[in-house]
Amino acid sequence: MAKLILIVDTGVDDALAIMTLVKNGIKPDFIIAASGNSDLDNTLNNTIEVTKILEENIPVYYGAYRPLIREPYYEDYHGQNGLANYTYEMHEFNKINGIIELYNTLKDEEVDIIITCPLTTLALLFSLEKNIIKI
User: Which of 34, 43, 48, 75 has the fewest CB neighbours in a 10 Å radius?
Assistant: First the structure.
């Protein structure tokens, strides 16, 4: 069975997607949080918060912290923190780079990837090795 990896920019929409997957018995092996609708600090903390709410021990790593070409631009689509201004304590996070973790996983195992954010993290992965993913 293939591993499941999520690459997200967790705001309200991605939080709901993660919760829906897990509550339906589909638990990701790890999640990579990236900059997208909000900055990396928000999306990383939001993703960790969702795993805590679910009471699931799902590793959360960081991905791309900004777009490759343009300057980052963030709207308050989902409130200032991306979770409709839901408040929580800031989390300690894993210092492992999710792009490297994904690269190492893909070298040895079959992986399904669901991406709900800008594809910058995937682009950075391809910069390490263009044929790492077989579609």
Answer: 75
